[in-house]
Design goal:
73% helix; mainly alpha; globular; three-stranded mixed beta sheet
C-alpha cells in the first residue's frame, strides 16, 4: 500500500516519508516574522555564548549559582537552535518538507530542552531559596557538588521523559494527511494526523505538560512563599528590600517563560478553539524570547558576573599593553 507521500509500511504500521509543515503559511509577512525570530536568535546566541565563555574561563564563577546560570545559558542556546534552522529552511527557502526521522529528532530536541528550560528556571529559585532562607548553611546545603548532581538529574529526567514520548510516535500509522498545523514537527499536531488510536499519546502529552509546567512552577511558588515568610521575619527594613531585590530578575524570567507557555499549553490540553496562526505565533515567541532575554535580564545584570567580566577585560588589556610596549621600543 502506497500513499501520495510514498509511505513505508512495516508490520501494518504506515510511516510516511515525511511531513509538510503548514503553520504560518497563510499568515501575511511570514518572511518578516521569521527574520525577526532570526534576529532574536542571533542576539540569544551571542549573549548566551558570552555568558558560557565567561563562566568557563573564570574559576571564581565555578560556584553553585553560576553552575545553574551556565546550565540555563546552554539550554537557551540549544532550545532556540533546535527551531531556527528548520524555520529558515521552511519559510525563507520555501522548503516545508521534513523527513520522518528528522521530524522525530526535531520533536525530541525541542521538547527535551523546553522541559530543561522549565527545570533550569526552577533550579535558580532553589538557589535563591537557600541563599535567603538558610544564609548560614548555604555552602553546606547548596554546594557545587549538590548543584552539579541536581543539574545532571534534571538533564536525565528531561531527556528520558521526552525520549519515551517521542518513541511512542513510531507506533502510529499516518495513512491520510501529512500536513502538520504548526511551525515545526510539534508533538500534538503530528499525532493528531494518525489514523489509529492516539489515547496513549494524549496521556503522555498531558504528563509532559505537568512535568514541564506544573511541577517546576509549583516548586517556584512554594520557594517564593518560603522566601517571603523569611523576608518578613527580618527586623531590618533595608535587609528586606535587599533580599527581595536579589529575586527581581528571576521573577521576570519566571513571568516571561511560564505565563504565556501555561496559557498555550492549557488551551491545547482542554482543546479550546483558537486561531491557529495566533497559537503558533504565541508558541514561537515563547520559544525564542526567553533564550534571548534570560542572559540579558538575569546573567549579565548579576553583580558578580559583571565584576568578573570587568576584571577579565581589564587584565587582558593590561597584558596586551605590556606585551606591545617592548616592541615599540
Amino acid at each position: 500500500m502506497q500513499s501520495p507521500t510514498n509511505s513505508i509500511q512495516n508490520d501494518s504500521l504506515i510511516h510516511p516519508q515525511g511531513f509538510y509543515i503548514m503553520g504560518l503559511i497563510s499568515m501575511p509577512y511570514t518572511n518578516v516574522y521569521v527574520m525577526f525570530l532570526t534576529l532574536l536568535y542571533v542576539i540569544s546566541t551571542i549573549s548566551n555564548c558570552f555568558v558560557i565563555c565567561i563562566i568557563c574561563i573564570d574559576h571564581h564563577l565555578h560556584v553553585p549559582k553560576f553552575i545553574a546560570v551556565g546550565n540555563l545559558a546552554v539550554v537557551d542556546l540549544v532550545l532556540s537552535t533546535s527551531l531556527i534552522l528548520a524555520m529558515i529552511k521552511i519559510y525563507l527557502f520555501k522548503d516545508n518538507f521534513v523527513e520522518y526521522k528528522l521530524c522525530l529528532v526535531q520533536m525530541y530536541m525541542y521538547y527535551s530542552f523546553l522541559t530543561l528550560e522549565a527545570f533550569s528556571i526552577a533550579v535558580l529559585a532553589f538557589d535563591r531559596l537557600v541563599a535567603i532562607c538558610f544564609p548560614l548553611r548555604q555552602n553546606a546545603i547548596n554546594s557545587s557538588t549538590t548543584m552539579t548532581v541536581i543539574v545532571a538529574a534534571m538533564w536525565a529526567l528531561s531527556h528520558g521523559v521526552t525520549m519515551l514520548a517521542v518513541s511512542t510516535m513510531t507506533y502510529l500509522s499516518f495513512c491520510n494527511s501529512v500536513q502538520v498545523s504548526s511551525y515545526f514537527c510539534d508533538y500534538a499536531p503530528v499525532f493528531r494526523l494518525a489514523c489509529n488510536d492516539v489515547s496513549l499519546q494524549w496521556t503522555i502529552a498531558t504528563v509532559l505538560i505537568l512535568v514541564c509546567n506544573v511541577v517546576p512552577l509549583s516548586f517556584i511558588v512554594l520557594s517564593y512563599t518560603c522566601i517571603l515568610i523569611s523576608v518578613f521575619q527580618m527586623k531590618n527594613v533595608e535587609s528586606r528590600f535587599k533580599a527581595l531585590a536579589t529575586c527581581t530578575e528571576h521573577l521576570i524570567l519566571v513571568a516571561i517563560f511560564y505565563i504565556p507557555m501555561c496559557i498555550i499549553f492549557m488551551i491545547g490540553l482542554f482543546r479550546v478553539a483558537i486561531n491557529q496562526d495566533l497559537r503558533i505565533v504565541g508558541l514561537s515567541l515563547c520559544s525564542f524570547i526567553p533564550p534571548c532575554t534570560n542572559p540579558i535580564i538575569y546573567s549579565l545584570k548579576t553583580k558578580e558576573l559583571r565584576s568578573r567580566v570587568y576584571f577579565l577585560f581589564q587584565r587582558t588589556f593590561h597584558v596586551q599593553r605590556h606585551s606591545i610596549r617592548p616592541h615599540n621600543k
